[in-house]
Design a protein that fits this description.
Structural class: mainly alpha
Largest sheet: none
Number of helices: 4
Strand content: under 5%
Shape: rod-shaped
Number of domains: 1
Helix content: over 70%
Length: 101
């Protein structure tokens, strides 16, 4: 919040002072502002990509843990679990059709 406020305040100061600039200086200022926006956007996208990667790693670890848990189950329990899942899918197929993949 603070960074955004400072950046907006700084931009506002540039805009106010731009009123007394020549057309060439205004064009340079516009370019600098657009470059700063592009830089901020790139930084945000990098952070978002890092978060997505981290989340994917966590999901993969959870999936591996679930698979190991399933493999460690006795055959009878595993069969019962499979039957329960299949039964739930038959009872409410609409929920599974809308599930994220």
């Amino acid at each position: 919040m603070y960074i955004t406020t400072v950046w907006h305040h700084s931009t506002l100061q540039h805009v106010v002072s731009a009123m007394s600039l020549t057309p060439e200086q205004r064009a340079q200022l516009k370019t600098r502002i657009l470059d700063e926006i592009a830089k901020k956007r790139a930084e945000t996208e990098e952070k978002l990509d890092a978060l997505k990667d981290e989340h994917l790693v966590q999901l993969q670890a959870a999936a591996r843990q679930q698979i190991e848990h399933f493999r460690a189950m006795p055959g009878q329990d595993r069969d019962a679990l499979i039957r329960d899942v299949l039964q739930r899918e038959r009872e409410s197929p609409a929920e599974h059709d809308n599930a994220p993949r």
